Amino acid sequence: MIGSLRQHVKKDALAALESEYGAQLWVTALDLTNPQAVNGAVNQAFQIFGTVDVLLNNAAYGLYGTVEGISTKQTGEVFSVNVFGSLNTARTFLPHFREQGGGQIIQIASMAGQYSAPVTGMYSASKWAVEAAFEALATEVEPFNIQTTIVEPGGIRTNFVGGNGVFGEDPIAYQDTKVEKNGSTDER
User: Fold this and answer.
1) For 153, how many CA atoms within 13 A lie in the half-sphere containing its CB?
2) Which residues are catalytic?
3) What dotted CATH number matches 2-169?
4) Is pTM beyond 0.85 here?
């Protein structure tokens, strides 16, 4: 499933910005689960612009279902994108930020990094991991004039869950339970 999500790129979404800003805007697509691709894209951005002031890190892979119903493979995929993709991107920016004397990392996390509810356990776990890592990182890089901000948005009306979310295979045992009635993946 992760391969098909990587293929889902809205190429026209930035066309208006490209038209308006021309050479001031550089657009590239990359696979956040591939550290070499992240490294190449970040290094290319610094080669093109010389300096980059802000990293807006917004990796999001929505995975929903009971903890029992989500496979080990699916758990690995959500952590690969949400946690390791975010960390790999930040790690690649840090040497450049130190060299240029500073920078700003804005890490988009989620309110789900503060709580968990039925059918959001593994997604929440990945966002908790992001929050823990970036809280530590903020203190670690502060001496280098690198600022870190974690943004924790709540529910936003988008097609994130219904259109892009991945769902585990919940066992039949959860039918007619509180899980099904109050947060089941059937209510997407």
Assistant:
1) 9
2) 123
3) 3.40.50.720
4) no
> Tens of pLDDT along 11-41?
666 788 888 888 888 888 888 889 999 999 9
Which tokens belong to 23? Answer: 């050479």
Q: If you write DSSP's letter for every residue of the chain in order, what string do you get?
A: -HHHHHH---TTTTHHHHHHHGGG-------TT-HHHHHHHHHHHHHHHS---EEEE-----EES-TTTS-HHHHHHHHIIIIIIHHHHHHHHHHHHHHHT-EEEEEE--GGGT---TT-HHHHHHHHHHHHHHHHHHHHHGGGTEEEEEE------SSHHHHH-EE----GGGTTSHHHHHH-GGG-
For residue 137, how many C-alpha atoms fall within 13 Å in the half-sphere facing its CB? 23
